[in-house]
Design brief:
Elements lengths: L1 E6 L11 H6 L1 H14 L3 H7 L2 H4 L2 H21 L7 E4 L3 H8 L5 H21 L3 E6 L3 H15 L3 E8 L2 E6 L1 H13 L4 E5 L11 H11 L11 E2 L6 E2 L2 H10 L7 H10 L2 E7 L4 H9 L4 E5 L1
Parallel strand pairs: 1-2, 1-9, 9-10
Antiparallel strand pairs: 3-5, 3-6, 4-5, 7-8
Helix pairs in contact: 2-5, 5-6, 5-7, 6-7, 7-10, 8-9
Length: about 300
């Protein structure tokens, strides 16, 4: 039996996250204090005390989730509680997976997450974007609706997250996203609802963030992974550090192919999935995609 370790992405944050670990685990406390020094502000205080309206901002959310997930993974792994044959992370969680697989150092991973978050926040401020969840339609139907909405509005809307069968997220210019949601409702989807976000993530509107992030990534060493890591961009795994680096960059303007990732894992013999980090969003996506999976959550 093979085991996959999964790390969550944006949306899993809550005020109070990781506080119990900080209070009971000396090793995690030390890592949290080190993280505050790296990012240059009191990240852990924001995680523990909020306010929520600050924590949900992309530039703060991303390092908070990375720190919680990585610190918890390292604590569990060093105690021998968990071990993975493959790893993957949803969106920003991919950087957590890269650090957990020793492609990145903890410090480089945190710096990259913090910079990625600030660049995505800036891109969203410079060009307003929107995202919407579409429930109850196939991936192909959603792709066709996005194409139709783009044609009608002359604006950008694309699939951004293929999370599980019948659960997609679209991203792009607000008017085009709203038109796509309208078309999805008319076509009989179960739900089409706007998501409160600060930008059109995983869409061409993130091109400025991608260009800047390329410069940030260039000097950073990506070692070969100790266990294979799946890329959101390709929905395949590799241990090749340079390929993982390129795929991490491409992820910014391309969809998160999570459903395909889980199906590929299952096809490769993975039957146990362990989610590590705040919340339990990925557990539900695994349940809907790999019906026979054994799923554990450490949060």
């Amino acid at each position: 039996m093979k085991t996959a370790i999964l790390f969550p992405g944006q949306g899993s944050q809550t005020v109070g996250m990781a506080r119990d670990h900080m209070e009971t685990d000396d090793q995690m406390r030390t890592l949290f204090e080190h993280a505050n020094e790296i990012v240059g502000f009191d990240l852990t205080r924001l995680m523990f005390e909020g306010p929520a309206e600050t924590l949900i901002q992309t530039q703060y959310t991303q390092p908070a989730i990375y720190l919680h997930s990585y610190a918890l993974y390292r604590s569990l792994a060093e105690r021998g509680t968990i071990r993975g044959d493959v790893m993957a992370g949803h969106s920003l969680g991919e950087i957590t997976a890269l650090a957990a697989a020793s492609v990145l150092t903890f410090e480089d991973g945190l710096r990259l997450v913090a910079k990625r978050g600030s660049l995505m926040q800036k891109a969203g401020e410079e060009r307003e974007g929107a995202m919407a969840a579409i429930i109850g339609m196939t991936a192909e139907a959603v792709r066709q609706i996005c194409s139709e909405a783009s044609g009608q509005t002359g604006l950008i809307v694309v699939p951004a997250n293929d999370n599980s069968e019948g659960q997609m997220v679209i991203s792009g210019d607000p008017a085009a996203v709203e038109k796509a949601a309208e078309l999805a409702r008319a076509a009989g989807c179960r739900l089409a609802t706007m998501i409160p976000v600060s930008g059109a993530f995983h869409s061409p509107l993130m091109e400025p963030a991608k260009d800047a992030f390329r410069e940030v990534l260039q000097p950073v060493t990506f070692a070969d992974a100790k266990v294979p890591v799946y890329s959101n961009y390709s929905a395949t795994c590799t241990t090749d550090g340079e390929r993982l680096k390129e795929n991490l960059l491409l992820q910014l303007t391309n969809p998160v192919r999570w459903r395909e990732t889980l199906l590929d894992m299952s096809g490769q013999g993975v039957s146990e999935f362990i989610e590590v980090g705040p919340g339990s969003v990925l557990k539900g996506l695994v349940k809907r995609t790999v019906k026979s999976a054994e799923i554990s959550v450490f949060n």
